[in-house]
Amino acid sequence: MKYVSTRGSAPSLDFEQVLLAGLAEDGGLYVPESWPHFSADDLRAMRGLPYVEIAKRVMTPFLGGAIPAADFARIVEESYATFEHKAVTPLKQLDQDFWVLELFHGPTLAFKDVALQLLGRLFDHVLTRRGERVTIVGATSGDTGSAAIEACRDRAAIDIFILHPKGRTSEVQRRQMTTVLSANVHNIALEGTFDDCQDQVKAMFNDPAFRAAQRLSAVNSINWARIMAQIVYYFAAGLAIGAPDRRIAFSVPTGNFGNVYAAYAAKQMGLPIEKLVVGSNRNDILTRFFQSGEMKIAGVEPSLSPSMDIQVSSNFERLLFDMLDRDGALVAETMKGFRATGGFAVGDNQLGRAKALFEAHRVDDQQTGAVIRAVHGETGEILDPHTAVGVGAARAATLDADVALVSLACAHPAKFPDAVEAATGLRPALPPRLADLFEREERLTVLPNDLAALQNFISGKTRLKGAA
Ligand SMILES: Cc1ncc(COP(=O)(O)O)c(C=O)c1O
Ligand SMILES: N[C@@H](CCOP(=O)(O)O)C(=O)O
User: Fold this and answer.
1) Is there a catalytic annotation at residue 112?
2) Cβ-count burial of 325 within 10 angstroms (0-12 exposed, 13-18 middle, 19+ buried)?
């Protein structure tokens, strides 16, 4: 299995190289050169298997033999043994043809654990064998950060630097990151938005000298391995409700477009998904794109679902690559224009093809609160505000009556207690292992939105010897 860059001019890499590289050298994102395929019979044969077995079958073709089967099996088993629910990502049925897929039973209570528990172990395995170290730099709007820190804390071969937008995460999210005091963990509160954090991470990758000296690696969904691990739960959920012999669709609350891109990948691999419903909060650039074909940046505004307060959705580039018939030069030109002008548009033909699969809806804060309240009243379930955006979009979706719809529950409600309490009057409690979170010591460094300041800070803290 080879991976190619969406911008067409970086070298093709194998799985191990892609895992360590993160962003491609030409600024693009890596995608598989071709999609592995599962036939309807292959899918039927996976029905009823435990999550870890489905995970091994779905991910193995992406490895291209890079990791011995027995080692990969152990890594997968250990990764999902950290989840508190035996089914790893259980489905909860809320209506005749409507489920929520609970992705928040991992150590940090958000869907990011599904991929990052695996990624931390993959990094460890590969770096130990190669006798190498890396410096991970990541951007977070709140959830990736704690999941990545949890997965990489105290690992001898890794220093990890996580940039979060100062004051723009929930307090629980911030404390989940900043109370990890391990020597290899560094939290940076950036004076800016999540888009600024993500821009700075990409700028560090696009600085060849810094990238090489620090041996940069990525934990954001720019790293292909993140997407690979997220594909699995679409297969697991689809099979559990009857695919390929039942019509299915997913509704996905969306920010950086990684989660819904993983669903798109599952479809390319043979899971017969009829529709992908994209839910955005008031930062609705994606909803506007799927309605008009124009991607146009507006300012990032704080919302009740802070992890989705994003305007530049980095994984959209992977979809754009396919929309432009995998023409890397055209993607590079389009992304260059996007950076320069804050906008680009696709033609009616491309938009029409995208709309055959994607449908997008904006769910504002008032609607988000109303969904949390309504679902609680109707079913007793408490949704977090991100999950509520997905459910709100699902309710607005235009699907045939016989399509079974699964909406993704991406975070535990206790990560966003204020929003949940305002909607329901109930304050969700953190699990006992996090009960003292508000008493724990915090450690973070506030830095300006400035590349040189960030690079100086990272160079000064990294344990890489001989780094420039
Ligand atoms: C709780 C939660 N829901 C939804 C999203 C959006 O997912 P994605 O960025 O993959 O589109 C995020 C952030 O990634 C999140 O943390
Ligand atoms: N919502 C995310 C933003 C980063 O997304 P990623 O999937 O690219 O890591 C967060 O919680 O940090």
Assistant:
1) yes
2) exposed
